[in-house]
Amino acid sequence: MTAAVRIVDDAPVLDLHRFTLPCGLDVVVHPDRSVPQVAVSVWYRVGSSDEAPAQSGHAHLFEHLFKNSKHLAGRLHYEVLRSAGAADANASTGADRTAYHAVLPAEQLDLALWLESDRMGYLLPGLSDERVAQQRAVVLSERRQRYENVPYGAERFAAAELLYPEGHPHRHLTIGRRETIAAADRAAIVDWYRRWYVPANATLVIAGDVTPARARARAERWFGSFPASRRPARATPAVAPPAAPARRAVDDPFAKIRRLRRVWHAPAAFAPGDAELDVLATVLALPGSGALWRALVYDRPWAQRVAVSTSSTRLGGEVHVVVDLRGEAEVDAVRAVIDDVLARARAGDPAVIDERAVARARTRRDAAFLWRLEGVARRVPAIQRYALYHDDPGAMAADVRRYRAVTRAGVVAAAAAWLGPDAYVEVETRVAR
Fold this sequence. Notes:
The protein has helices at 58-65, 77-83, 109-121, 129-148, 153-163, 178-183, 186-196, 212-223, 274-285, 291-298, 331-347, 355-372, 376-390, 396-404, 408-418; strands at 5-8, 11-14, 17-20, 26-31, 37-44, 88-93, 98-105, 202-208, 246-252, 259-266, 303-313, 316-325, 424-431.
């Protein structure tokens, strides 16, 4: 029996078996007989990056609607899964995918696949105007609770609006605009479903206590009768970086600490420079050693927190520098320190980017890869992500090597290429009195 995870040339290799059903469904099987559980995951290649302006928020709204279907007799998927002993079951929407997953006892594999098959092929008979209205209200409530009535929610919207032009799908975040969510009706949802929720636009991962032969037989049983389908084309709107800094101040009644956020455009997921900027984020802001952290927390007690992070989608990425200000720290003085540290990073100053800091960041990334191997529930999202962006569910070893190949020179070059002195947007959050 092949091990679920092997180390080959010092990189992890997962035992994977891939095939495509006649309907177009991509299926990946990852056997791991160590625990009597199975994880079933379906990712559809559709998210907020696929929304036209009038569809803002539709991808996430649809995820909420995708919880009952024709043959459940009025029950919800989560109710059925819990009654079958599911250890985990959830759904999520991102910029580039909508994900559904469940972890169950191994003998419940047929149940999980039946539920996913029913959702994929038989959603519309259970979709009423009343259900659409109910879930619209739920999503609008979620928008208020997680985005509008929380500290720093306003800055998230402001940063996106400054960074992306009108009409770009990233301008209004994955949650979407309140107006377009409220206007979504059953006809719009049906159009979304018929375009994006076809078998050829999905990847099914079956992982855990199952043989490849059994997984294939069960997938063929539950999805084999679907008609052949084609993967829809995805629009790829481009966006240019700002030619000059764009700034906005927001008064936040929920925030207790002033904040300064700067955002730059960055490479798309897995594009050249993506890994280097990820390493740079750690080099700059790792507590205790990061150059920007030291400059604003240790050398000058002006910041309560300094964070640098990256995110990436199929349309591009972002680099965020976030500073939470102490007491009466002067915003302009903090801006000057950020400018100075980043200018030195672009110039390759070893006091900002040195070999040891880059090596430390690479090691932390290596540890993160190992953490993803802990159990099938952690491996499945990684398998899906590589299938989504690489069309290769087994690309983890290549990704590990990609990060191990990051050099100090490459990090400096990425900083110079992407973190231009004028190519950012900035949001200052002020504490409303």
